[in-house]
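Exercise: predict the fold of this chain.
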Amino acid sequence: MNVITLLSNLAMPVVIFFIIASGLMNNVNLFEAFTRGAKEGLKTAYNIAAPLVGLMVAIGMFRASGALDLIVHAISPVCNFLKIPPEIMPLALMRPISGSASLAIAKDILTTYGADSLIGKIASILMSSSETTFYTITVYFAAVSATNYRYSLKSSLLGDLVVVFASVAVCRILFS
């Protein structure tokens, strides 16, 4: 364990050293390159701020309104028919929208059912195999000022749906 700790502690200084050494060997004005990169980073942060704030407000309103509970209740019969535990549906629905909300839901699932339960294992695989689709699309498309995201959104949401079925199937095969 000491070797891993040592390597972890040395990783960033070594990377920074190699960046500086490479810049000096290639006659790059390091301070100018750094300030230019910082300026571009601030522009990017400014460009994505409005969509990000809008997304955060929408997530807060969605959670506070009780709409998630209504949706989960409405799709429970379909989940039961497909042999998907309805207990994971709040997580499956929130994961594409918000990382922090889905993390809170996953924590509740693990606290309620336990990490070694089938539902806990499905929730863990779902969390590790899916993406915060709407957040990612909002940030990356705003960063490059792109507006046509329909194919990315459709394929990403399809991937999230596949993750739900795959996590249930894998857990049922391996742990039942």
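Check your answer against the key: The chain has eight helices and no strands.
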